[in-house]
Amino acid sequence: MKRISLTQYLVEEQRLHNSIPAELRLLIEVVARACKTISHAVSKGALGEVLGSAGSENVQGEVQKKLDVLSNEMLLEANEWGGHLAAMASEEMETIHPIPNRYPKGEYLLLFDPLDGSSNIDVNVSIGTIFSVLKAPEGMSEPTEEAFLQPGAKQVAAGYAVYGPQTVLVLTTGDGVNGFTLDREMGSWVLTHRDMEIPADTKEYAINASNARHWYPPVKRYVDELLAGKTGPRGKDFNTRWIASMVADVHRILTRGGIFMYPADAREPEKPGKLRLMYEANPMSFIVEQAGGAATNGKQRILDIQPKKLHERVAVFLGSKNEVERVTGYHNE
Ligand code: AHG
Ligand code: MN
Ligand code: MN
User: Fold this and answer.
1) Residue pair 109/148 in contact by the 8 Å Cβ criterion
2) Is the CB of 58 within 6 Å of ligand 1?
3) Is the CB of 243 under 6 A from ligand 1?
4) Cα–Cα distance between 43 and 273 in angstroms, integer?
5) How much distance in Å is there from the Cα of 13 to the middle of ligand 2?
6) Distance of CA 29 to the CA centre of its chain
7) Angstrom distance (rounded) from CA 142 to CA 92
8) Where are the domains of the chain?
9) Rounded to an integer, what distance in angstroms lies between the CA atom of residue 247 and that of residue 253?
10) 279 HSE (CA, 13 A, CB side)
């Protein structure tokens, strides 16, 4: 197999499509390097004393794990000095993180969920990192929170790393989706998943069914029809998968199809779902659409949503196109 490294891929993409200028390439390489560091810490587990709680809470009132805090610091540190960023924002930080004055500033904004799937850290199940890249509005010298409040359609790049049996980085810059496997001995990312595509149809769905009693009618109707199987209205059997790490569920869907759902429900009607628009839903929706899938909040395309605040939450239906369209149709009937 001819090995193509992440660097070579990025350089050649720029030549072909003019879509990855040097600053953006640096950004992606620096994020990928930070993911390598996080992957290393994750794989050490108890030996690296990285398991367990950090004894603090984040802005959403969730208990932070040591790895949530560590990964956040690794991403901040890696990305501060390169001169490619104007500011960063993270699921784990209440306010935005401007680039310190001792470093030059660039035109990009970086957002991340440093460690996705926190409940899986201590039980040795796949977890990941999700990131999203925007451009700072023109003429802005000191970026504020408002600079980040752009619809997902404005992203110039998005990706995730999944720390599973293999560590894989999946990336889009708006021209398809490609996956790179970390070669630990060589310390490099190697292109292993070219032009990832999500099949339009599927027999697999992912939803946390313990919330079923709180679901709104369109979700209940859709899942009931899946559960009815061969003799029901869908005329085929479906299978459930729920990993509780969005990264791992989305990675499965990119590999063999499926639909992932985290709906809003009647528990807290004022709360539109659990997942975060800026750090989870937007980057994953960009990737999924670029792989031929679809992503909605039940009513509209996620990438069209105008964010109102940094830590905004959103309902998520994403994956195989025909299934996402069906459940979205039930909401709009
Ligand atoms: P995080 O660990 O970054 O807070 O995200 C966890 C998210 C997502 O990865 C996953 O799909 C979902 O929460 C799982 O939620 P439940 O525990 O409600 O199943
Ligand atoms: Mn997450
Ligand atoms: Mn997280």
Assistant:
1) yes
2) no
3) no
4) 31
5) 29
6) 17
7) 21
8) 6-193, 204-332
9) 10
10) 26
Ligand 2 center–CA 128 separation, angstroms: 8
What number does CATH give the domain 204-332?
Answer: 3.40.190.80
What CATH architecture is 6-193? 2-Layer Sandwich (3.30)
Burial classification of residue 324, based on how many CB atoms lie within 10 Å of its CB (0-12 exposed, 13-18 middle, 19 or more buried): buried
Per-residue pLDDT reduced to its tens digit, 143-179:
899 999 999 999 999 999 999 999 999 999 999 999 9
Taking alpha carbons only, the member of 89, 94, 88 closest to residue 59 is 94
Pairing of strands 204-206, 259-262: parallel
CA-242 nearest atom, ligand 1: 19
Amino acid, res. 153: A
Ligand 1 touching residue 320 (CB < 6 A): no
With tokens 């994953």, the residue in question is 284
> Over the stretch 282-327, which tens digit does the pLDDT of each residue have?
999 999 999 999 999 999 999 999 999 999 999 999 999 999 999 9
Q: And the tokens for 167?
A: 């560590």
What amino acid occupies position 26? L
Residue 96 clears pLDDT 90, i.e. is over it? yes
**Tens of pLDDT, residues 136-149:** 998 877 889 999 99
Q: Whose CA is nearest to atom 6 of ligand 1?
A: 117
